[in-house]
Write a structure and sequence with these properties.
It contains six helices and no strands. It is mainly α. The chain has one domain.
C-alpha cells in the first residue's frame, strides 16, 4: 500500500467515525431542514448510547493521521509524487480542513440548541 493511501484511510476513518458520532444529533436536524419528517427520525437519537465509542474512534483516527503526517519520516523516493513539497502541503492542508470539520461535528450537540431556537 502506498504512503498516500495509508494517509487517506486514516482520514476517511476519522470522517466516518465522526459521522457515526454525530448521527444522533446532526441527522435529525439535517433531515428536518430538508423537509423530511416522521416518527422514525426520533430513532436516530438511539445512537446516543454509542456516541462515546465513535468519539474515541474519531480522535484515534485523527491522531493516526497527525502521526503519519508530522511524526513519521516521509519514506518517498525522489521521483514519487509524495516527495514533492506541494503534495505534502496539500496533504497537511487537507488534514487540517477535515479535522476542523470533524471536530465541529463532534461538538455539534453543544451548539445545536442555537439552531433549534
Amino acid at each position: 500500500m502506498a504512503i498516500d493511501e495509508k494517509k487517506s484511510w486514516t482520514n476517511m476513518g476519522a470522517v466516518l467515525a465522526a459521522i457515526g458520532a454525530s448521527v444522533c444529533c446532526v441527522g435529525p436536524l439535517l433531515l428536518l431542514s430538508l423537509g423530511v419528517s416522521g416518527a422514525w427520525i426520533s430513532t436516530l437519537t438511539s445512537f446516543e448510547s454509542v456516541r462515546p465509542i465513535f468519539i474515541i474512534l474519531t480522535l484515534l483516527f485523527i491522531g493516526l493521521s497527525y502521526r503519519k503526517l508530522y511524526l513519521i519520516p516521509n519514506n518517498c523516493e525522489e521521483d514519487e509524487i509524495c516527495a514533492l513539497p506541494d503534495s505534502q502541503k496539500k496533504q497537511k492542508l487537507t488534514f487540517w480542513i477535515i479535522s476542523i470539520f470533524i471536530l465541529l461535528l463532534l461538538v455539534f450537540p453543544w451548539y445545536a440548541p442555537y439552531f433549534m431556537g
